[in-house]
Specification:
Blueprint (H helix, E strand, L loop, with lengths): L1 H20 L3 H14 L2 E12 L2 E12 L3 E8 L5 E6 L4 E5 L4 E5 L13 H10 L4 E5 L2 E7 L8 E9 L5 E8 L4 E11 L11 H11 L19 E9 L4 E8 L5 E8 L7 E4 L3 E4 L4 E4 L3 E6 L2 E6 L5 H15 L2
């Protein structure tokens, strides 16, 4: 009996100590903040899936960061072989498109102006900013359910962030829409806290030349122009071709809502020397890669075609859905 009592006592003592040693939500959030402040440089490789219109778009993602606020995010679409880079340095924010040898320059507060599922700083910021964060501890991991702030897409509402217990870096992120359907999934493959970057790593010209040198297979040029499938009641009201069919302007009208929109499609070739074009708006990740979204239009590059979708009647989420319906058709 004494022996059994002693064993039970030891088990109880062990459980009590384990409970005392368990970190609370406040402890973990504090540790995340400390980790974030201590990180001066890192490189992350990840896989990201975007689910749109019953299709999954898969990207390989590489993130490079150097304190205090230089970022370089390379997105490679596995389906179309389209590679683009979002680069923030001391001058501005750029989107580099190696297939065109063209860089688009933004005066933007990206990346912390909106949630970014592949950026450590953004994920920690989302945890800090949500007073109603749901926290759970599971073996080797801390799990947070938080609200998100996708400024250009209000349909994305929440996310689940899985944090590694030892490194305090994310292992996995899932972003959900208002119906709790998973829309974005990011799986972090490896994190390097002591990478060796080139001294010009965050320079535009170096980044473009490096991408062109390593990216041998450019997207093929698709000769067909497309009709968006998102709006089932949309009818074509105008269709004009210019420049020997390299430029097409189509206008549409939804019969049920009377809303109108325009799709400009232009077949493009790579520039001989790199061009820098100033753009108004913010970069946004789409099914094909990175687009540029402002108040009334969304533009992007896909399969050798530069698209501009514009409307004063549709909101940002609707423009995004129309654009992705074009992208999905373009992959058929």
């Amino acid at each position: 009996m004494k022996k059994i009592f002693s064993i039970v006592s030891l088990i109880c003592a062990f459980l009590t100590l384990a409970a005392c040693g368990a970190k609370s939500q406040e402890d973990v959030i504090k540790a995340l903040g400390q980790k974030l402040e201590a990180v001066e440089i890192y490189e992350v490789n990840a896989m990201m899936e975007i689910n749109e219109m019953n299709k999954t778009h898969t990207f390989d993602v590489n993130v490079k960061y150097s304190a205090p606020d230089m970022y370089k995010v390379t997105l490679s679409n596995r389906d179309s072989n389209n590679m683009q880079i979002v680069l923030k340095n001391e001058e501005a924010v750029y989107v580099l498109t190696p297939a065109l040898n063209k860089s688009f320059k933004f005066q933007s507060d990206w990346p912390l102006n909106s949630s970014q599922p592949y950026l450590y700083q953004s994920l920690v910021k989302d945890i800090f900013n949500d007073e109603n964060t749901i926290y759970a501890k599971q073996e080797g991991e801390y799990v947070f359910d938080t609200k998100v702030d996708y400024r250009k897409s209000r349909d994305l509402t929440s996310q689940k962030i899985v944090i590694d217990e030892k490194t305090y870096f994310p292992k996995e992120v899932t972003v959900f829409d208002s119906q709790q359907q998973p829309k974005i999934h990011v799986l972090f493959n490896d994190v390097n806290l002591k990478p060796k970057f080139n001294e010009n790593e965050f320079a535009v010209e170096y980044s473009m030349n490096s991408a062109i040198d390593t990216y041998e297979q450019m997207p093929t040029f698709n000769p067909s122009f497309l009709i968006p499938k998102y709006t089932a009641n949309a009818v074509l009201t105008g269709d004009k071709y210019y420049d020997e069919d390299h430029l097409n302007i189509r206008t549409f009208k939804d019969k049920s809502t009377e809303k109108t929109f325009t799709v400009i499609e232009e077949k493009v070739q790579a520039e001989e020397t790199m061009q820098v074009v100033e753009v108004y708006g913010d970069p946004i990740v789409m099914g094909s890669g990175i687009g540029f979204l402002n108040d009334t239009s969304l533009s992007w590059f896909d399969n050798g075609i530069e698209f501009i979708l514009s409307s004063e009647k549709y909101n940002h989420d609707e423009l995004y859905q129309i654009a992705n319906s074009l992208i999905i058709d373009n992959e058929k």
